[in-house]
Protein 1
Amino acid sequence: MEKITIAIDGYSSTGKSTIAKQLAKVLGYIYVDTGAMYRAVTLYAIRNGFISLDKNDIEGLVTALPKVKLKFVYNDSLGFSEMYLNDENVEGEIRTMEVSKLVSKVATIEEVRKKLVKIQKAMGLEKGIVMDGRDIGTVVFPDAELKIFMTASPEKRATRRYKELLDKGQDVNYEEVLKNVEHRDHIDTHREISPLMQAEDAIIFDNSDMGLEEQFSRVLDFSKRVIDKQKKDVR
Ligand code: DC
């Protein structure tokens, strides 16, 4: 079967990773959560004292970047890959509010983006990949056969993230989560390098009023259409 590259971009907490993960599983593709990579670098920066709410030692972090080793390790029982930072499983720690508050800052650093984009491009060489993030359709895979741009209202997204964090037992309040969502939207869309932007050839997918099942069946449908077209073109 002809394999394609699927790029899923969009605002934070639009459910990109849930859909991308499920899609990869059904198509037998590799799934890559690039947000997890930015989060892992942020965790490294926090742990080593380079970044905090009132500290920005960008130079220190950039100098230390060669020491940051990232990899995804497939967890058979969970059915998806988990993020490892220097051989430690950090999948839980990268999802805390502390990391969420600082990650946009780290994602604006040019050297960090260069390092991560290089790894991401290498992961996609063989196609058969579903990657989600902010710059996948524009920078990482500008030639992806299918690009989806996911969006939903800030309130819907904050409600989803709030429930997720509560389920994980984290002590959060809705207002704080909404503020974080809006703050990240602002930084993600206004940063100088690779801002969150819809690729010209992306399908805009607003899922504010859509359940997971409907979202998934639509996205699977888009994918099948592109894959079928690809097969016909090859013949
Ligand atoms: O998808 P997420 O919320 O886990 O992403 C965390 C942060 O990383 C988000 O605020 C923006 C940044 N990011 C990015 O700049 N580029 C990507 N390709 C993925 C994420």
Protein 2
Amino acid sequence: MTTISISQSSSLARRSVLTLADLSREEIRTTLDLAKTLKRDYTPFADALKQRAVVLLFEKPSLRTRVSLEIGIAKLGGSCVYLDHQGSPIGQRETIADYGRNLERWADALVCRVFHHHTLTELQRWTKVPIVNALCDAHHPCQILADALTLEEHGIDLSSMRLAWLGDGNNVCHSLMQLTALFGGHMVVATPDDCKPDAAWVARTSELASATGARFTYTSDAKAIAGCDAVYTDAWISMGQSDSATKKASMLPYQVTDATMKLAGQNALFMHCLPAHRGEEVLDSVMDSPQSVVFDQAENRMHAQNALLLQLLGADKHAS
Ligand code: CP
Ligand code: NVA
């Protein structure tokens, strides 16, 4: 029998994660360390989620999130049920409360991709099992846990990182802001004036940053990114938003080109949660350059989510 020892106990057991800031800095640290342990070798955790079941409830399409969860949970010996809600939003056939109160009778956790953050808070209110946000209109915490792992793998210290966000101040941007705020780096958020991050989440970020000294520069100047460790961009039009030629035109100055990466610096990483719209927010030459770590980010989705789920399900000390 191999014994795996994890330095901290599962303070996360039975908790929900709707935003990254539902985790403390220490809990994120523990999660990243466990993700690294898993990535090295899943063998000791092969039965960690035996007899446990996770419901994946998706109102929007997914490649990375769905596949990394299904394969990841299988690697831990657990099972998943995928509920496809792309045709009928949760809450249409019966209330969100009743929906959750059924699912909790069978499932050990609900991992949900929804249009409205409110759907998650409503599920959390009525359901005793952990709810994990797999992307909503306001946040994408699973993505940013994987990105934090990727940044560290590329030698970047989360407490002193300098990140540049270019484009739409969207769900992924909000979660990245929370990571920066929790760890204490500096983030430049460069967006058109009418696509800034949501004011309420900016305020929450400021509260978190007051404890760590993290700094934020909100600007419409796409050139304010010199000397950063990583340039991060995302789709100009997120799922659920209507396609808009006007918005895309206003985003053009924020397109990540070779000139952008030169300005950022030769050691700057290029990051994107994917799917990428090549020729819109980023050019092929950047996506496919040695500075691009986008597929590392995608790979790390599985390890970061598995580390989180093991803790939420109280199975992180599993030994086999
Ligand atoms: N990054 C991400 O969440 O990808 P999917 O939409 O394919 O799940
Ligand atoms: N901001 C994008 C992220 C996709 C993973 C969206 O919400 O569509």
